[in-house]
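Why does this matter for the project? Reviewers at the last site visit asked to see concrete outputs rather than summary tables. In response, this paragraph embeds two records directly. Each consists of the residue sequence and, immediately after it, the corresponding structure tokens. Nothing has been edited or filtered.
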Amino acid sequence: MSFLKNGRHERLESYREKYKDFMALEREDGILECRLHHEDGPAVHGWEAHHAWREVWIDIGRDPENEVLIVTGTGDRWQIGNPEVWKTPFREWDREEQLALYHDSSRLIENMVFNIDIPTIGIVNGPGTHCELATLCDITLCTEDADFFDPHFLGGTPPGDGMALTLQRTIGPKRAAYYAYTGKKIDGHTAVELGLANECLPREDLLPRAREIARMMMERSKMTRHLTHAILSRPWRQAVVEDMGFHLMHQSYEMTTNREGALANLMKNAHRFRDR
């Protein structure tokens, strides 16, 4: 029955190389650190990176040598948005490309929630978009200048690809509606007060603190870790099943029917982002 214990999976050396342009993967004593990046600087939103994030959760989840996962960014920003990815309006995309983006957008969240069976720690190391990837982790640490805002409505698009969902399920529907409509900054201290994050720390203390928590987790048995994560991640699994497709399809419908396109909408509302 050894196949039940070991199974077939890629070794870290293999999938580290596969995703090296988008994330740096390092493991020590079972603790895997996944650092999102672009040319070793802050990660930049783009469709290739988007696809890589979807796929990496599968390989990480399949590898039994990964015992605890830490997800963080690079430098002083969590991620940099890139409006140019919408230079061609979504309604002008080939239908196969539209479908591929739909799957990438849904699987990016689904694969993280359903394919990772080990404890997870997210570090929002500065401002940036798509903080849901860190918010979905069991424990979330952040720096004071983090910003958990959802930019979609301010930019003229319904919020459908994950951040609004995490806001609804962490801070409640009333607060989520307020922050989705207004785009008001949710800094690190506010995120802790509202329940989006657990600790707000100086940037240089984030990774040491995450490693400290991870080592504490490693003191428990593998079965205890896995089954505790299963309990603690269950609300996210329920949220994805119940609402993720609904959110994403509403955003997709607007983008498909919008004649101006997401980039034109964003430029029209650029003054709303001057402090970001």
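We now turn to the second protein, recorded in exactly the same manner.
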Amino acid sequence: MDRTKTHKITICTSCKHKGETCKPGYELIDRLRQAIEAARDTIPEDFEISGVACMAGCDRPCTVAYHGSRKATYLFGDVDAEADIDDLVTFARDYAYLHDGWSTSVDRPGKLKKSTLARVPASIIAVEKSQEPVQ
């Protein structure tokens, strides 16, 4: 099966818990990559999983974003690298099946119901066709 990466999960690598030097984002990237690979048969699309220096969720570490082409984007906070892996994988599977990425809080698994920081609608840019020929 030809699996293209049309979905992306981005994890903050600079998040750290207050008063601690530990940056859980790197551990979360590794754990999530392994968990997504293990669940590969149940997830219809591949996910690119990468880190980014900051997603401005500093008060709610660790932050994780789900993106998809022509889909709503989600930003979750307070994600724990150990406790929340199953919820993140379940959301990846659900998100892959949603044609527009839109889900309600009751549709999100476990802690992700309450830890959503943002849901950004997919952007569709309309370009008005010019009436006059370009010279």
